[in-house]
Q: What sequence folds into this?
């Protein structure tokens, strides 16, 4: 898992509930044994609303992950490695240790403040955060069934990993609808509106009862400096999911997310990866392969894909 995405340009400067400017408060969260870090207290340069999740001590995170050992490692997402741990309040958590960054603490905490207010049943909840020297950690609710990628293709980054049980059509529809609702929330109902920038099957997490939640958007592109974001040369998103216009302009918007989500739906429908170099030429790109069937009727599509999956 990561971080987070970027606000729409028209929404820069808006706050989560449309109110005025707020400063970071001294303590956060509703669990008595968690308190703000010194870094949060020093955040005077950026006016933000209070962070709505607790600051978790670095020592606690090291303890529950065995000092971020390989035994606790459960994945490697965008911008950092993810570890499993049980918080002191008894809740299972996915603990993302972010890659090194030169981003100032006050800017990072301002972004965490915005993300901490994102609450939706189809969006992965941020449970806490940690700023401990140069180390930054984000703590999320744990997805009991892994990601959609894990189920369709096997655990990402693990050689020889096998896919999970074949999903029924009912399960596929529920997962698709849940993920769509999560993306709709980011695009249209959160305030400010958010562009995810990296929609893919590994960022659709599956919980009990096949509940799907959108996860892992890029926090670093939440920078308040619009010029810095627009002139960034870092490539965003994942190969195979990019909208065509991104290759031409380098700019992303909510429609880019929708295109990427369409690729996820094709994965869910066909069981194929977005790009698979083990397949014959002409079939390696999922989108190109599907477009090649454009002369067929919708019924032919359904019959072919059903027979492929079964």
A:
């Amino acid at each position: 898992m990561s971080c987070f995405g970027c606000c729409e340009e028209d929404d820069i400067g808006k706050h989560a509930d449309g109110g005025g400017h707020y400063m970071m408060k001294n303590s956060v969260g509703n669990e008595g044994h968690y308190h703000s870090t010194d870094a949060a207290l020093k955040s005077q340069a950026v006016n933000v609303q209070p962070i709505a999740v607790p600051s978790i001590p670095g020592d606690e995170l090291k303890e529950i992950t065995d000092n971020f050992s390989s035994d606790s490692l459960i994945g490697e997402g965008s911008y950092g490695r993810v570890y499993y741990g049980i918080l002191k309040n008894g809740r299972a958590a996915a603990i993302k240790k972010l890659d090194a960054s030169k981003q100032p603490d006050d800017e990072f905490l301002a972004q965490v403040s915005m993300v901490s207010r994102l609450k939706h049943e189809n969006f992965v909840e941020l449970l806490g955060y940690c700023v401990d020297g140069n180390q930054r950690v984000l703590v999320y609710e744990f997805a009991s069934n892994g990601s959609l990628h894990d189920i369709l293709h096997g655990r990402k980054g693990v050689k020889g990993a096998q896919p999970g049980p074949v999903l029924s059509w009912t399960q596929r529809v529920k997962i698709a609808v849940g993920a769509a609702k999560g993306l709709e929330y980011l695009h249209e109902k959160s305030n400010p509106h958010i562009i995810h920038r990296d929609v893919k099957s590994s960022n659709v997490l599956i919980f009990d009862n096949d509940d799907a939640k959108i996860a892992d958007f890029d926090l670093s592109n939440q920078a308040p400096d619009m010029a810095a974001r627009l002139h960034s040369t870092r490539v965003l998103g994942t190969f195979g999911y990019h909208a065509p216009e991104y290759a031409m302009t380098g700019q992303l918007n909510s429609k880019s997310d929708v295109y990427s989500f369409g690729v996820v739906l094709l994965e869910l429908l066909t069981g194929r990866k977005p790009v698979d170099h083990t397949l014959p030429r002409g079939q390696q790109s999922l989108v190109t392969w599907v477009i090649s069937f454009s002369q067929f009727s919708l019924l032919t599509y359904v019959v072919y894909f059903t027979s492929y999956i079964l």
